[in-house]
Amino acid sequence: MGRRAAETILHGIVAALVVMVLLRAGRIRAPEIRLRFWLLAMGLPLGGTPLFWLLAPWRLGDRFRDDWALFSASHFTPWAFHGVELAKASALLLGLAGGALFLRDVIPYVLDFRRGRAKHQAVTAPPPALASAAERAAAALSIPVARLAVVTSKRSILICRGLRRPIIVASTGLCAMLTPDELEAAVAHEMTHAKHRDPAFGWGLMLVRGLCFFNPAVQLAARAAAAEIEARADHSAAHVMGSAKAVTSSLRKLSGIDSAPAPGTWRGFRLAAIEERGQALLDGERVAAATSPWILPTTAIGLGVILFLTVA
Amino acid sequence: MEPLLPQNRDPSSRAFRAARPRLDSKTAKNGAGWTTLAVLAGMAIVLRAGDAIPGWISGVPRGVHICASVEEAERRTGVLLGNVRKDLTDYPFIADGIRATARPIPAVAIAMQGGEGKLTFLRSHGGEIPVALHPPLPSFHEIAVPLGPGLSASLKAERQSDGSVWQDLEWADSTGRTALRFNGRTVELLRVARQLAEDER
Questions:
Q1: How close B14 gets to chain A, by Cα (Å)?
Q2: What percent of chain A has pLDDT over 70?
Q3: ipTM given for this complex
Q4: Cβ contact (<8 Å) for A239 and B43?
Q5: Around Cβ A121, how many Cβ atoms within 10 Å?
């Protein structure tokens, strides 16, 4: 069991590294395509690795390790530190790192979910600005208007939730804080989440992360996938608005970036990421380059072969 | 995905007009294909190099395993080593000194250090002892010596790369080949070999 978990971790690291280098070297900017690559990095250790165990149990034998494998962690087995095998200690440390990453993200996720549960808070009718923004965004995205719920709160809340029928939850504080353009951009962002069923997708990601809680590479790939989902929604909102300015402006306001975060704090890092996200939109940096449709299948097959030849 | 640069805005619509690609799209696609292959090949090379690190550091070739015990070596190779520990009590095993390989022929090497010198015991199952465990050394003298009734061995004097002289005694029986490499006295080597040969019978 331990060796199989270690192999999943090893495969996750290899897949994530390949995807990371490929996205950078291949200058693949489109969030939609980047998302697929990160899903591949998550899916291979989760689905491909157990398939290898099932279809080719002889991979774990000495003959395969010595004659065919590109890499076998068992070759590191003789190395020990204070009586603890290096390979086992590395796997344990990586497993702990994976667990820490999972907890680091699952707790805020659950808290966000609880915060967005409209039924536990006072609900009011959507203000006309919000309703019309939702209608315009829905028309631009060619989707039916998602359900709106407005909670009475001074805090700026805007979230898309709902597994089967997405609902956009906004707060009165948010409606008061944003200008009409910013509100429309923010709603268009959430509408895009609704269009792509991102809340359900997010729960799926969390489920996969829970299954692979010990795998730091899967955790990081899932985070990257979540970031691409947000980037996709940003781009979509910018298209709806005709300008990235309103999107970045609403992003800045919602994150409270202008309230001078303490440099070096965790909040500071998060805000820096948001700043980067907005800047990428303004610069048009993530313009889709011409990407061959064969790149993803080729990567999947090539990575599959490499992982098949990589044994813990 | 369309670009977001303000200069691409179409004044008659809320949507942006697609930007002109910076590169010829065919060139970009070909480049991306080569990049993908290069990244995959690079990862394969990195993995292969990583796998070779333990061998580079310890000097143990690929396919040779360091075993924790004689029993593990027997289990990995099927070579029976039951009498080794009993017959060679004067030569304690060196740490990480038990090495085994399954190919091309199952074989085991055990490095020992006794009062008379360093001794390496090698045994294969069914044929020549693999070079990975028993690397050939330049020999400058070779004779046949009897080890018992109907059993003779080949004794070679060999020179190591550091100039030291070792003795290499090798014989074959019905199950495989046995060899001893020793840097002590020939008399002691023959004593050990005869004891092993007698027990094997």
A1: 5
A2: 86
A3: 0.82
A4: no
A5: 17
Angle, helix A128-141 to helix A216-241, in steps of 10 degrees: 100
pLDDT at B22: 46
B40 touches chain A (CB under 8 A): yes
Q: What parts of chain B have a pLDDT lower than 50?
A: 1-24
Asked whether the beta carbons of A242 and A196 are under 8 A apart, the reply is no
Contacts of A47 (CB under 8 A, 6+ apart): none
Name the residue of chain A whose CA is nearest to B65's CA. A75
B12 vs A: CB within 8 A:
no
Which pLDDT value is given to residue A287?
Answer: 52
Cβ atoms A287, B19 nearer than 8 A? yes
Q: Which residue's entry shows tokens 């076998």?
A: A72
Show the tokens assigned to A26.
């291949």
Residue of A nearest to B98 (CA): A78
> Residue B4 is nearest to which of A14, A30, A281, comparing CB atoms?
A281
* The pLDDT value given to residue B25: 52
What per-residue confidence (pLDDT) applies to A78?
65
Q: How far is B110 from chain A (nearest CA, A)?
A: 16
Would you call B97 an interface residue with chain A, using a CB distance cutoff of 8 Å? no
**pLDDT score at B17:** 38
